[in-house]
Design brief:
259 residues, alpha/beta, Rossmann fold, globular, binds nicotinamide-adenine-dinucleotide
């Protein structure tokens, strides 16, 4: 498929993990990519260029209003002032504390990255899409955007809030031809989930293998999902294949979530 030929796609948090796989998948379908990340993203750029597309990396911390505005302006210049797709993917695991023990600074840090960062990047990109009267925005939420999870209140609440932001943006921008949707992945195979399971194992007095088995068994498909499975759902939501969908959140969880 080549659904994104010559389209211009901004992806946050694409230096590593899921974002890197999403960047590479969009490039293979013809898109040029602007990465916004606070880390260097040489590997991502190489993957996009291997697919024959252009890629530039704009370093910024998504929490920093000024840096985000500068990075989006620079990405817009790279793209001749046109952005077809924004993927809000940058995210932080949060901390691992019961609410009764949660330092305010930890709570604020997670909300700042996951929620405020997404708002700031979206706010900076929207005028370009509004001027073009078209655009698609897709945000990486989580299965914990639809349920609670002990020890993870900061992360859980940041992801629930992203669904509220998604619906609000969808309502505000439908008249401008902009669709706004989200994806709610279950645990995704990769480095990050190993780290998350290790924290849960320590806090819950279990082995990492036990945590993994329990989380896998929670899904009828009895497995984690792959980054490619999340990326393909994002591309569906960013493409005209989903032209009648806005304000939606799609679960990619092996059946773990059904509503
Ligand atoms: P990751 O830690 O591998 O990658 C996160 C990326 O975001 C990195 O490139 C990092 O540099 C960037 N980033 C983090 N904070 C940033 C900031 N303040 N400013 C700019 N860039 C920043 O994580 P991942 O697993 O690839 O997760 C990607 C997204 O998917 C996140 O939003 C995460 O919450 C979500 N998610 C992941 C899983 C999973 O199991 N991995 C499950 C559900 C949802």
């Amino acid at each position: 498929m080549s659904r994104f030929v010559n389209q211009r796609v901004i992806i946050t948090g694409a230096a590593a993990g899921l974002g890197q796989v999403i960047a590479s998948a969009f490039a293979r379908e013809g898109a040029d990519i602007a990465v916004l990340d606070f880390q260097a993203a040489d590997e991502t750029r190489a993957l996009v260029e291997q697919a024959g597309r252009r890629c530039q990396v704009f370093r910024c911390d998504v929490r920093d209003e000024h840096a985000v505005n500068e990075a989006v302006s620079a990405a817009a210049r790279f793209f001749d002032q046109r952005v077809d797709v924004l993927v809000n993917n940058a995210g932080f695991n949060g901390h691992y504390n019961l609410v009764k023990d949660m330092p305010l600074a930890q709570w604020r840090e997670t909300l700042d990255i996951n929620l405020t960062g997404t708002m700031l990047v979206t706010r900076a990109v929207l005028p370009l899409m509004i001027a073009a009267k078209r655009g698609a925005i897709v945000t990486t939420a989580s299965n914990v955007a639809r349920r609670g999870l002990p020890l993870r209140a900061d992360y859980v609440c940041s992801k629930w809030a992203l669904l509220g932001l998604t619906q609000t943006l969808a309502l505000e921008n439908a008249e401008h031809g902009i669709r706004v949707n989200a994806v709610c992945p279950g645990p995704v195979e990769g480095e990050r989930i190993k780290d998350v399971m290790a924290h849960h194992a320590t806090k819950e007095g279990k082995s990492i293998e036990q945590v993994r088995r329990e989380w896998e068994a929670a899904a009828p498909m009895n497995r984690f999902v792959t980054p490619e499975e999340v990326a393909s759902t994002m591309m569906f939501l960013a493409s005209t294949d989903s032209s009648a969908m806005t304000g939606q959140a799609l679960n990619v969880t092996g059946g773990f979530l059904m509503t």
